[in-house]
Amino acid sequence: MLATMTVVVALALVAAGASYGYLRYQLGRVHRVSIPTLQTSGAGGGSAPSTPAGGPFNVLLVGEDSQGGGQRADTMIVARVDPRTGRAALLSVPYDYFGPIVGASGPNKISDALVNGPADMVATVEQDLGIHIQHYVQINFQGVASMVNALGGVRLHFPYPSRDTMSGLSVPHAGCVRLDGKQSLALVRSRFFSYDKGGVWQYDPSGAFGRIKRQQAFLRAAVRRVQGSLLGNPLRLNRFVSTAVKDVTVDKGLGVGTLLQLARAFRGLGSSSLATFTLPTQIVNNDGQYGDVLYPVAHLDDATIAKWDAAVTASSTTGTATAAGASAHHTAAPSAGGSAASGSAPSGTPASTSTTTTGSKGVVVPGAPQAPLGSIVQDRTAASYDPTPC
Q1: Is the N or the C terminus of the chain less surrounded, counting Cβ atoms within 10 Å?
Q2: In sequence order, which ranges of 152-206 are alpha helices (DSSP H)?
Q3: Which residues contact 28 (CB under 8 A, 6 or more apart)?
Q4: pLDDT of residue 114
């Protein structure tokens, strides 16, 4: 979710009435990369027309964390924006989502697609999800701490004392807590979140899905802080923006106009009104050399992507997608046969024996993994131990 901090920056500038020249100046300081496939290649590598002017477009937002060496995509979100309706929707892709990786010899966690750079990351998302990407935004997680400190901290309400001994998160008391940059980074990195209920530390059982929900709560709290702390304070606003642009990477085609469209569509980020979706997956524990992974579930993924598309595009209908969105992209995935975990439900669909995944427009992608029977996680609603903006 942290890649959308770039949108927070744009939102702050727009709300503050920043001049077009100042916007161009700050955007000019952002690192840019060339991704030749953007706007000209369709999912799976085939050609597709550019998005019509003023039509819906998709932005791949990536939070990159190089902690421990190597470049990995820790957070992946596809933001769909329709300037005509002023609507936006977010589709979160869990970092352990497992499938073919462009430029690699075999399948792996989708977070590894960034190892060889943004171009392979974009191509992998297009291939595996059947979603056409028009723009790319990446933020380094290390910059999150600096941004939060420039904001003067972010406030979240924790129902219980909470911690993650691996990421360093430590919230010793329940209630509304101001997180500084270090603790904010520990929260958004948290993969082993636990809370103290009645003197007993309990772990969040929902894994990557719980992490996504916490990141969404953090982002909404950050937007509220931007709206309440930066507006009317030009010096603090400039300090925050100048800090943020140092850790942001965008594609060379992303201009001020697109940034303004993103900002205007994301005005609801500070509330729960923004439409958010998470790809359903099948949990597989200890899958050989890969460890715990999340396998795609074809029919559920397609239905979720269609709903995500329809959330911003009035002409879309359930089960279909527009040219800028997605089309059916998988063969049938093995279904769950075991008991469901928290926030999940078993499926009775027969398991497939296919060894391929079908990309958008029928492009067959070889080497798709096959999962053993497990649980299908459909989504996870907010739990009583989740932090919320305050």
Answers
A1: C
A2: 181-189
A3: none
A4: 92
